[in-house]
Here is the input.
Amino acid sequence: KEISLQHGAHRLGRRNDADMARWRAYGLGQFIHWGLYSIPGGEWNGKIYNGAAEWIRTWKEVSPQAYDSLIYRFNPIKFNPDSWAAVAGRMGVKYVTITTKHHDGFCLWPSKYTNFTVAHSPYKKDIIGPLVKAYNKQGIDVILYFSIMDWHNPDWRYDIKTRDDSIAFNRFKQFTRNQLLELLTRYPTAKGLWFDGTWDNSWVKQAAFADSLETEMRKLRPGLIIGSRFRADEYGKRHFDSNGNLMGDYEQGWERKIPEKIEDVHGNDWDCVMTIPENQWGYAKTWSGHIKTADELLEMLAKCVSLDGNFVLNFGPKPDGTLRTEEQTLAKAIGDWMTVNKEAIYNGEYAGFAKQDWGYFIKNTGTNKTYMVIFNVPVSGLLRVTTPLHTVINKAYDLGNLTQTYTPEEIGTSTYFIHLHQQTPKKPFVIVLETGETGKSHGTGY
Ligand code: H79
Here is the structure.
């Protein structure tokens, strides 16, 4: 049964306004992790750190003071926001999420509330403003990543155990509020905030504060999009409140993992954030383990969109401000595929067709088109399609070659085989189904 909550979900079900519809239609996004951790790139005194490069400050071999002194070496002289935005644009991303401040506390904008910012580095200049401008010029929306946890601020606490903790953390809360209002004021075109570092007890206990701050941010910036990782309810429940309702505008739990089926997302909006190696977000000089290929990433993209989510691929730029070759190559390969197939991705949603082993069905919202994004061609060359109730296929053709059409073979009730013309494709490809509705039964007939 429902319990009464003061700081639970503000809304049941999805948002239905234009800003959220725009977010929902993105399909593909880019994540950028850039900061002081990019300088060591996972290496300290000649030794390689096995964890994620952006967490190196917590490694026992690294003194926090030495890490924080990296600010004096932050000087990305080759940084050119237009060239990043061009790479992203060519890749086909519709939005970018940028680390304004990661867990280390270093701010990529000249915050008035701390000296630990770009303004006090040799580079001196704001990074966020020029990035927002460059991406917006490419038609790409910007979301600001912000870590609540801040290892640099002496007032940060993991838990509140004493009166002193409480006094310090109250200062920290005001600092956090100041920084967030500062970001929203400085970058008015940013569409939303992507929160992180909110799992510690100290913050989980701030249901009332976080709730009122969320309300304040939304008042300042109507339409603002905030995910489920920002605040907990008064019982310390995160993402979903004590009644099981999502807090925030979309579910932020899909980090380096993807749901398997539509039931896993409970009708909510969501995004999946993904790294190219196993788990590296900031620049790591040495990538070890399995490095995902363009085809694997495209499959993740199609899977996310087919289950009503957005797919956000992470980039960790180098300390000089350039993008590593591997990332540029992948961006190019994804972009080449998107050039031909983007209409299967943008504005895509769950199609309601039974899942098949060859790949994913994606419906184009509000149209009569459903896309089959094909990754695994069976040796038979026959692709099975079972349509939802009352749906018929009027036309089927290749997205990459509109004159290449198919006549689906009906093999059973609402079930067809599409006979492929070409059985050994080298890349994932898309078949468009134009569908119609059969006359619905009104209770007469059989
Ligand atoms: O920014 C990237 C990562 O650095 C950050 N989120 C992405 C987008 C991230 N930080 N931590 N994690 C991801 C993994 C979180 C692990 C946790 Fe825990 C397990 C949080 C709480 C339990 C590790 C162990 C951190 C605290 C205890």
Summary: The longest strand covers residues 429-437. The chain has nine helices and 19 strands.
